């Protein structure tokens, strides 16, 4: 495999690691980061990093991109569309791509009042970010169809893992237990994103799949569970109506559903490494001690 990641961030790095461990130890891996600091931070990694901020073509990434057999797209859209498509369509056209993966979000479904949904549910996003995701999902499906390339659209739940969990917020003193009765969210551990994407890349799995945990839960429950694991005081509950929140943070609470992950598990014949937030948090704490 020759992989190219547009957006070598948290989920992409987990995927690159899993590719080498589970799919192809000799795979070549390259990708983009938005800043020079990002390039420097990964200078000692086995990956080739290129600067690309999405506003203009990356000056150095062309040769690596044109060699790609597997393309993973992890950059969110902007008001102009998809940065990778807009700035590097010609390079992608020139590559002998065998498989495309697009990291989307379960936010494309919108609000279902806490009901269970799967991939057959209609998309009815409640905010601009998720509406853009719907449009870019279809952009890449259309592109892949024209070229006869299998494409996997992974709709990701809320991502957490080492360095990005309730433990970190508790240690920083920024954890809050905002309570909105009936509200639940799905999550997904970053290692499950990496593993699923690596296995899918190896098999060139195509289709649109949710990637979420087995146990959607109220957000305040995670903070309470993590606080008890750390042996620190549980932050008091704050009613959603009176909580001070950014408009973006508040918008997430307009979207209430339980997202089934059955299809991706069946397609790959696997169970998740961390099917519940309890299992995921326990693993994070073990790794940090």
Distance between the termini: 35 Å
Identify the overall geometry. globular
DSSP helical segment count = 11
pLDDT below 50 for ≥5 consecutive residues: which ranges?
none
Q: Strand pairing plus helix content: what structural class?
A: alpha/beta
Kindly state the percentage of residues in helix.
25-40%
Strand order of the largest sheet: 3-2-1-4-5-7-11
CATH class of the domain at 2-159 and 188-214 and 259-273: Alpha Beta
Q: Roughly what is the average pLDDT, rounded to an integer?
A: 96
- Helix and strand run: EHEHEHEHEEHEEHEEHEHEHEHH
Q: Radius of gyration over alpha carbons? A: 19 Å
- Give the strand tally: 13
Give an overview in words.
The chain is of the alpha/beta class. It has a domain at 2-159 and 188-214 and 259-273: Rossmann fold, CATH 3.40.50. Helices cover 40% and strands 18% of the residues. The strands form four sheets. A seven-stranded parallel beta sheet has the order 3-2-1-4-5-7-11, sandwiched between helices. Strands 6-13 form a two-stranded parallel sheet. A two-stranded parallel ribbon has the order 8-10. Strand 4 (70-73), helix 4 and strand 5 form a beta-alpha-beta unit. Helix 1 packs across helix 7 and helix 8 runs parallel beside helix 11. The longest helix is centred in the middle third of the chain and has 20 residues, at 128-147.
């Amino acid at each position: 495999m020759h992989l190219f990641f547009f957006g070598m961030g948290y989920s992409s790095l987990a995927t690159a690691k899993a590719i080498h461990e589970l799919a192809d130890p000799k795979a070549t891996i390259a990708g983009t980061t938005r800043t020079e600091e990002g390039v420097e931070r990964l200078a000692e990694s086995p990956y080739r990093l290129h600067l690309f901020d999405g506003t203009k073509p990356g000056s150095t990434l062309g040769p690596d991109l044109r060699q790609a057999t597997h393309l993973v797209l992890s950059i969110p859209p902007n008001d102009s569309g998809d940065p990778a498509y807009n700035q590097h369509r010609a390079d992608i056209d020139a590559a002998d791509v065998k498989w495309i993966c697009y990291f989307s979000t379960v936010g494309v479904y919108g609000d279902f009042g806490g009901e269970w949904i799967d991939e057959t549910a209609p998309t009815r996003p409640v905010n601009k970010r998720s509406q853009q995701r719907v449009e870019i999902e279809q952009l890449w499906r259309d592109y892949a169809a024209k070229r006869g390339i299998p494409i996997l659209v992974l709709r990701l739940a809320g991502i957490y893992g080492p360095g990005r969990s309730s433990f970190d917020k508790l240690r920083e003193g920024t954890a809050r237990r905002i309570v909105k009765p009936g509200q639940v969210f799905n999550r997904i551990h970053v290692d499950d994103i990496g593993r699923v994407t690596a296995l899918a890349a190896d098999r060139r799995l195509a289709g649109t799949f949710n990637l979420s945990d087995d146990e959607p839960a109220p957000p305040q429950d995670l903070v309470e569970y993590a606080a008890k694991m750390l042996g620190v005081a549980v932050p008091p509950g704050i009613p959603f109506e009176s909580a001070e929140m950014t408009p973006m943070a508040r918008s997430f609470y307009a979207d209430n559903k339980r997202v089934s992950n059955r299809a991706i598990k069946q397609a790959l014949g696997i169970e998740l490494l961390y099917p519940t937030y309890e299992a995921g948090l326990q693993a994070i704490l073990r790794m940090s001690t």
